[in-house]
Amino acid sequence: MKEKLYRDEMVEKLSTPESLNEYMKVIRFHVWPIITVFLLVVSSAYLWISARNDLLYIKSAAEVKGGVLTCYVKEEYYNDIINNIDEITVGILVDNELEDVCDNGIVISETPDELQEGEINPYVMHIADLYYFEWMYEIKCSVDIDDGVYPVVIYRQNHSLFDRRSDNED
Q: Are residues 45 and 115 in the same domain?
């Protein structure tokens, strides 16, 4: 026996436009202002977050040799760094704690280098998520830490989320 696609009973009940209200939930007028306010709040939050450009937080890696920290960043971060070079701080991660090591005297290369095989420590490439034949910039500064490879974070110094100095002054 052939099954029917629609129930005969429902077809009979929905045969007139007036009977549609019985089966369809219609959003009442008093709900629309709530929906409108919700959509305005969500869209405003989205625009505010997408328009904010003061957050700068780049994870990378650095190699320290003879008191000079050399950090490598991808080409895509260059404009963010160079536009805020006076406010940039480089911090190393030690036991999941961020310690500032460079907050002045930071120098970034003017032109990118294409990363060649054997040019930098492979572990630095792993931490910084760099690949051979990718364009990257070098950031250098003088530090007073032991030689080695460190995971680093490059961030804007005056951003309240990362400004721990005000907590330590008390």
A: no
